[in-house]
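Researcher: Good morning. I'm working through a list of sequences from a screen, and I'd like to move beyond sequence-only analysis. For each chain I'm collecting a predicted structure so we can compare shapes side by side. This is the next one on the list. No need for commentary yet; just the structure.
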Amino acid sequence: MSLLSKKPLSDLMVEAESGTLRRSLGAFSLTTLGIGAVIGAGIFVITGTAAAQFAGPALVISMLIAGVGCAFAGLCYAEFASMIPVAGSAYTYAYATLGEIFAWIIGWDLILEYALGASTIAVGWAGNVQSFLQDVGLGIPAQWAGPPGSVVALSGGATVHGIFNVPAALVVLAISVLLIIGIRESAGLNTLIVVIKVAVLLLFIAFGAAYINRANWHPFIPPNAGHFGVYGWSGVLRGAGVIFFAFIGFDAVSTAAQEARNPQRDMPIGIMASLVICTVMYVAVALVLTGIVKYTQLNVPAPIALGIDATGIGWLKPIVKLGAIMGLTSTMLVMLLGQPRIFYSMSRDGLLPPLLGKIHPRFRTPYVTTAITGVVVALVAGLFPIAVLTQLTAMGTLLAFVMVCMGVLVLRRREPHLHRPFKTPGMPWVPILGALICFAQMIGLPLETWARLVIWLVVGLAIYFWYGRHHAQRIREAGPTAAIAAD
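Model: Good morning. Structure tokens for this chain:
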């Protein structure tokens, strides 16, 4: 039965009030944190792939499906975040409602979203920076901008073999240092970047709208190509599952709950405001992009830049590239902020070694987990030609969202009289619909992605039974003040 042991809410509240992490974030900072996570690789890269391969112009419908699913899940996150303002996000919520084994599964799952996602985005960031530098007559030696063994094309047509992706590794290390120095400084930089990249997207929407060719929207839902997920309504569903990668990250707001000044009020605002703003931006960009360029031509790494080329507005192209770089930077920052806080919470619960729960005596940040995460992510980004593992990342996150939605239902039934500063409206239908929509998007993903998820979970469960289960039991017996006293 220890597999289903739950962490008492009273213990969580002791942690929330311990003051081990510095509370310095308000509603605006939390909202820009969510926007910084969501407007990144998804809108600058994946929109083109999803339209060309799966949904066509109906990518707009795919985005709305993904956005509605996120909104339902976001309302459930908001209830938990206001009620349990502790670092750890979905992992912590599952521990309080569903039990230890489910908490471990979600915590292990979130590595796919944060650490692996940050590595992938760092590689994309490096490619965009290299392209931007070449446009202005600069550049990094090609062999130092690609992973070992990769073939990097030079401008003259020759090729060289990559040695190490230096830009990708350096940007990860630089962001990690910033995150160790302080959450307030990190959030301030993120806010500045968010303002810039939102302005860039608004420029694209405003100028691109004049070049829309309505013929490019027909057929709006291309006929199915004979395979599930390739156009037609099944393609719209698969497009929703793939474009869902663009929306994940709003949940990173909840990882900063223990650093919010007024989490009961500000966490729901940050989560829902960032989701609404990003959904509106995504739909507008998708409409303009598929109106400017035929969807069959959008299977490129930089679809928005392709859209600008189609308009002939040359001066806007470098601005869009700069916006893409900024977008990827802030997404990396939020992911590299979220992952250490998941590890921090799991360490405090005994599921991971206690070293990972250490707080810096001056900066009051989880510096050990931030440093370890930064070094590992930097090495992976520099050494491996990581494809954008959007389907696997989305699969793991969708599973976490399903569990959060079900967790709200469980806790409402088990603890109906608990104080809830924010309540999910439309009970029980909102969490039920959230779980069903997220699960439907999981069904739309390929079988190979399901197989990879199972393998990942098996490895995680092996670690749990080898280490986490026994150490967590000792922490539970010691009580909530034991980990706090260690700081």
